[in-house]
């Protein structure tokens, strides 16, 4: 995971040029994974959230299927694993499909926590997009 973060920091074209590196050095800003993630969330929030949620669904479903394939007949299908991940991610939890192994339970808990975090990010993005601009506030307050 650390290698993936380091590679992402070096390959994002927005921050790889000399101008950005110089400006970052002058302002004592490190171009690490977290700065790039925040910048991308500011520039393209919908795209980043769609990619993040789709990645969690795909990777979580695959990992859950790998953990549960030998121990349960019901979760042998990738679609059943995807269903469990989606329902856990959205905090619905019907209980029709449950993980039986410790590995599967750990993945389900992780997906649930990531779902809560993504929900918080979606709420924050919506709040930012619905906030009035300075000009709109001026027009609204002009009585």
Low-confidence stretches: none
Distance between the termini: 54 Å
The oligomeric status of these chains comes to single chain
Overall average residue pLDDT: 84
The structural class is mainly alpha
**How many individual β-strands?**
0
What share of the residues lie within helices? over 70%
Q: How many structural domains in the coordinates?
A: 2
Order of helices and strands: HHHHHHHH
Shape: flat
Strand content: under 5%
The DSSP helix count reads 8
C-alpha-based Rg, rounded:
20 Å
Q: What's the CATH C level of the largest domain?
A: Mainly Alpha
List keywords for this structure.
143 residues, mainly alpha, Helix Hairpins, 2 domains, 8 helices, 75% helix, flat
Write the layout of secondary structure elements.
Layout: H1 2-11, H2 13-16, H3 18-26, H4 33-43, H5 45-68, H6 78-89, H7 102-130, H8 134-141
Helix pairs in contact: 4-5, 5-6, 5-7, 6-7
Keywords: Membrane, Transmembrane, Transmembrane helix
Transmembrane segments: 44-65, 77-94, 106-127
InterPro entries: K_chnl_Ca-activ_SK, K_chnl_dom
């Amino acid at each position: 995971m650390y290698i993936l973060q380091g590679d992402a920091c070096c390959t994002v074209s927005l921050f790889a040029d000399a101008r950005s590196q110089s400006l970052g050095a002058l302002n004592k800003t490190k171009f690490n994974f977290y700065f790039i993630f925040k910048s991308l969330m500011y520039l393209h929030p919908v795209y980043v959230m769609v990619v993040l949620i789709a990645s969690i669904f795909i990777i979580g479903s695959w990992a859950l299927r790998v953990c549960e394939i030998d121990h349960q007949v019901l979760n042998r299908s990738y679609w059943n694993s995807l269903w469990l991940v989606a329902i856990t991610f959205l905090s619905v939890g019907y209980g029709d499909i449950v993980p039986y192994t410790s590995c599967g339970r750990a993945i389900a808990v992780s997906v649930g926590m990531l779902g809560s975090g993504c929900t918080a990010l979606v709420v924050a993005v919506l709040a930012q997009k619905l906030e009035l601009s300075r000009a709109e506030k001026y027009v609204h307050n002009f009585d």
